[in-house]
Amino acid sequence: MNRIHINSLFQKCMRSGMTKGLPMSTSATVTRATAEPNFPEMKTSVPGPKSKELIKQLGTIQNSDAVHFFVDYDKSYGNYIVDVDGNTMLDLFTQIASLPLGYNHPSMLESIQNPDNIYAFLNRPALGFYPPGDWVTRLRSSLLQVAPPGLSEVMTMACGSCAIENGLKAMFISHQGKRRNGRPPSQEELQSCLINQFPGCPDLTVLSFKNALHGRTMGAAAVSHNKWTHKLDFPAQRSANSFFP
Hints:
Aspartate Aminotransferase, domain 1; two-stranded antiparallel ribbon; two-stranded parallel ribbon; PyrdxlP-dep_Trfase
């Protein structure tokens, strides 16, 4: 299959999606909210009829049991979320605490629309291997500007679970490095780790706390202890857990 044929299939797929009523929003057709509402306003029960129908449709494609309702993100603003049935609710969940500035914040919209940032959204750089030329400047002018005193290094991650996973890895690497006392890994360690066996994969235990939730990826779930729905049927790294003091 040549590149021309692939491009043709992609364009056909995009056209098909648009003609079937998929939410292919553009700035020319979308009217976004520009201010918070004064108060919540409920027009239907939740989920409303539109959400129920969309949940039913989604259920034919993937598991939709966890969906509470579908959202109109263009009408949501600040601390208020608006569902597809027009219900306006004060949002205390904020997309798993990932929206500290709320919905459609002007500064965030400006940043996304800035031509200097488009390459990052379009090309999805693999930052560990091929960072863009302005990456060092961006780190120094953003995250490192608000870093706690004495902390001069930063590693960016895609989400909270990614941060936990890589934090665990960094902890294990540091621990094992100290145990080797400067010696390189042995051939036995190098070979055994490829088949998940000791000594390359050491038998280490992580201390975690009851009722904690760190994420749903395998490592993060291993140190989470709040709901069985996050852990049932998954093999997990050993974790000693206790009540937080």
